[in-house]
Design a protein that fits this description.
Alpha-Beta Plaits; 3 helices; 5-stranded antiparallel beta sheet; 15 strands; about 170 residues; alpha+beta; 6-stranded antiparallel beta sheet
Length: about 170
C-alpha cells in the first residue's frame, strides 16, 4: 500500500469475534460497520431471538490513513484484511449503502453462497428499497431479488413483489 486510498475495507476476524472487533475499533475512533440480523435460535429448553452477524467473520472498516490500518489489525480477534492479487480489497461505498438499506428495512434476509446465472439487472422503483439495483433469481423454488456483494462472493436474498421492479434507465 504505497498510496493509501480512503474508503471501506473488509477485515477478517476469528470466528465469533466480530462484535468484539467492532467494539474495539469504535473505542479507537475507527469507523466500523457490522451488519447484524435477528435470528431465532433454539436450545433444548427454549427459543430466543439473538443478533448475529450477517457475514460471519467479517467487519467493514472505514480507513482514512495507514495508522488506522495498522491500529485495526492490532485489535484482539482481528486476523487480516481481505486481499486480492496481494492488494487490500476496497469496498465500494454503494455496496455498504445497499447492505445498510437491506439490513435496516428487510425482515427476512438470506445470505447465499450460490452462483446465479447473470440475468437482467433491475431497479426497485418503490418502497423502502427504491433506487437499489438488483436481479430476480429463483432460490429454493421461490422468486427473490438478489443484491450481489462481489468482494465477499455472496448474495443477499429478499422476497419482494415483482410489481416494484423496472428496467434501469439508459445512461
Amino acid at each position: 500500500m504505497n498510496t493509501f486510498a480512503k474508503g471501506w475495507y473488509l477485515i477478517y476476524t476469528r470466528p465469533r469475534q466480530e462484535k468484539k472487533v467492532a467494539a474495539h475499533l469504535h473505542q479507537h475512533r475507527i469507523d466500523a460497520y457490522l451488519p447484524l440480523v435477528k435470528m431465532l435460535r433454539q436450545w433444548h429448553d427454549r427459543k430466543k431471538y439473538v443478533e448475529v452477524p450477517l457475514f460471519p467473520s467479517y467487519v467493514f472498516v472505514y480507513l482514512t490513513d495507514m495508522q488506522g490500518y495498522y491500529n485495526s489489525l492490532n485489535c484482539e480477534g482481528a486476523l487480516c484484511y481481505v486481499t486480492s492479487s496481494k492488494k487490500t480489497v476496497r469496498v465500494n461505498e454503494k455496496v455498504i449503502d445497499d447492505i445498510r438499506l437491506v439490513v435496516n428495512t428487510a425482515t427476512d434476509i438470506e445470505v447465499s453462497f450460490e452462483r446465479f446465472e447473470p440475468g437482467q439487472q433491475l431497479v426497485i422503483h418503490e418502497g423502502p428499497f427504491a433506487g437499489l439495483t438488483c436481479e430476480v433469481v429463483q432460490y429454493k423454488s421461490r422468486q427473490k431479488i438478489a443484491v450481489h456483494i462481489q468482494c465477499l462472493e455472496r448474495n443477499l436474498l429478499v422476497e419482494m413483489s415483482l410489481a416494484c421492479l423496472s428496467t434501469p434507465a439508459p445512461e
